[in-house]
Fold these 3 entries.
Entry 1:
Amino acid sequence: MSEFKPSDLQDLTGRVYLVTGGNAGIGLETVRFLALKNATVYIGSRSAAKGNAAIASVKATVPNANINLLILDHMNLSSVVSAAKELTTKEKELHGLINNAGIMAVPFEKSQDGYESQWQTNYLAHALLTHHLLPRLLSTARVSQPGDVRIANVTSMGHNFAPKKGIDFADIDQEKGSIWTRYGQSKLGNILNAKELNRLYGPNGIKKQGGEIWSMALHPGNMYTDLNKNARFAGPLSGVVVKMLNAFGAYIPIDKGAYTSVYCVAGENVKREMSGEYFVPIAKVGKASKFARNGELAEKLWSWTEKEFERKKLL
């Protein structure tokens, strides 16, 4: 089978998608590819200025693009809830959620909600957003064909850097860990979330009678994006190393970095048995870590997360 290209997508007129972190990098390219196929796309961005600039950049090449801004600050969980409510008031249907926004290898910091920044930005905020959008996704699924409604969690091969326990519930903020165990745990969380969503609402889901949603996690590939440029790696030469790797072609182009996201959320050749799987570039099913394949850990994390949201009165 030939390698997937976004031009292979069917016409997406009438379909509605939300891309978090859609104002830059592979998120922006994902928005562009969906808009080219006539989808209605919402850009999740914490900055109105950056979000509107992103919309303008897409419309410069896709003049008829139907793109809308949704203010969404992952470091403020109440903002996540507000964004979900705003979207559901504006759209009666939602066909795809691309949980794309993320940060990598940043210094230890806690959010105003009390969680380590990578854990909250990469995992918790997306889990909360998904929770509040599930009713709209499920109602859309009930009036759609199986596979029309999907969730794509952008993760990373960096999930292999997770703590020795996979998810360290005793030190969830990884205060005793490192920038990389924090990043790895957050990205492992994205995979486990997709796995549990599939167990609940997938083609063989125990709750699929409420609506069938296909959920996948994906590693987009290694790219020279703002994520890499802004990462605080282990030493002072890290920025130089990243630039050298870019110069020597170690990274794939940013637009290609969006191919797997687009495939997972809207590709016609995605099969029902692919729901719950981990994808690697380009648009291929890969093999995640042993923790990422652990169904019991996925259920435990889901339960822990719901209890945290209840404790914070965010549900």
Entry 2:
Amino acid sequence: MMTVYLSHGLESGPGALKTQAMKGIAQKLDDCEPVVMDYRGIAEPQQRLEYLLRVLAERGDDPAQCVLAGSSLGGWLSAAVSAQQPVLGCFLLAPALGLADYPETSPVIQAQHSHIIHGWRDDVVAPEPVIERARLQRLSLRMVDDDHRLHASLETILCDFERFLCQCATPNHYD
């Protein structure tokens, strides 16, 4: 059983468009359980990180069988968790990398599978730190002609997410 943790951004919530659309993709797959996180009322990135780690521990999910997916601050949270304990997958949308007020501005992503989607016109999270993290770790990166919300790229996101989850669910015979 693969567990998919979906983390929303700073200003949104668990009912956000991308979060719910990605939950729908995960629900369609066999042996895949989506867990939609709710960080409303938790303002600080470090507190949200501690909350996500606590939920992972309380549920008893094996990080090696977990996919962490998130947008903006949710993307940063997913990356930050993977920096502490290797996970099966990280699917990051406009991840909040390179922001000075975050505990770790560019966490080293430890995931068997990784994919990042970022907008060229993102005026909240500059593309450069995200491109640099992808370059340093040779992570899969799709740059799109979109802004921070990535709403014009929803179809691309969902196609990539479904393909990504299928890759994560396929045993790696090269280990």
Entry 3:
Amino acid sequence: MIYDIVHTTHYEYDEPVTASYAEVYQLPPDTDGQRCLARTITTEPPSTFQRERRDFYGNVVTALEIHETHTTLKVHSTSSVETSDRPDVMPAHASEPWTSFVASATSRPDLVASEFLLDSPLVARGQQYGDYARQDFTPGVSLGDALVALNRRIHRDFVFDPKATDVDTPLDEAFDLRRGVCQDFAHVLIACLRSLDIAASYVSGYLETVPVPGQQRLAGADRTHAWVGVYCGDNRWIGIDPTNDQLAGSRYVTTARGRDYGDVPPLKGVIFTESETSTLTVSVDVVPRL
């Protein structure tokens, strides 16, 4: 499958902005069975400086500087991605007992695992998460079966509710509420896995949405999405999505991987202005190439 993706971020400020500095995590890398065919970022007003780099986790990050005074800022990212090598079924190695994938941040010589085993700023391990996970991660159960069962239970026990949490809501609060958005669902699953010493990452990207039968697909109605990558050693990952109770297969496009949302927000930065209020509008289109 090949997808053409357009992501537009539109800011409106009530006072002029004299300078904007931003980092954008919206350009897909070659990773996880996907291949990026083309990618670019443009801004209105045009950027004074723009540079693409790789961060510590291998993500493509675009640094932007805009020095022209403005009250409106638009950031357009476009990309084309092939996901033909991303399986929609659980890989064969996941049939091994889940205890075979338990790692150690101190004794196992795998730096990738170490990064995603420890507490991170937004996801801390805890007994409540370990106890919740152990209902499915029982002795002798395969990693694949345990993941599917836990993923399904989070999907069943938690209500998708955009009004229940925001980007700053602590994980413990979202876990107690049993409500939230894809960011919260992913953080809960990560906390559960890390509490069992299984390395897990936060993955941000896009998911092709399918319109209701008989209705046309709405332009701009897609969204950024978040799911979880479970590390299996040798730089192998299993992508799994508790928000939608499914594996992250060929309909998913990865833009970035980190310890939690704080490592890989779609766009972050600072502005120089006396503006006290602003309006943010985001439009995303993920269109399969026929």
